[in-house]
Amino acid sequence: MFKNIISPIQAWLLSQGRCVGCGTPLSKAKHEKLSDEAEKVTCKCGRIYIYNTKTKKYRRALFEEI
Fold first, then answer.
1. Which of 1, 2, 39, 57 has the most CB atoms lying inside 10 A of its own CB?
2. What percent of the chain has pLDDT over 90?
3. What is the pLDDT of residues 4-29, one digit of tens each?
4. Across the chain, which distance is largest between two alpha carbons, in Å?
């Protein structure tokens, strides 16, 4: 039940380009280039995201990508 409440809020924050933990804009976070299409983004709170430069969307990083 708790996940049903939290996941739409987290999806909305990611669609706005904000961290799901602290709410800061991910454009201000540390970016590292992974490939031509992807960047690894590390927020100040420690959460790691993957930014797709073609679609301009963020997603949470998988354990294999960290």
1. 39
2. 92
3. 999 999 999 999 999 999 999 999 99
4. 39
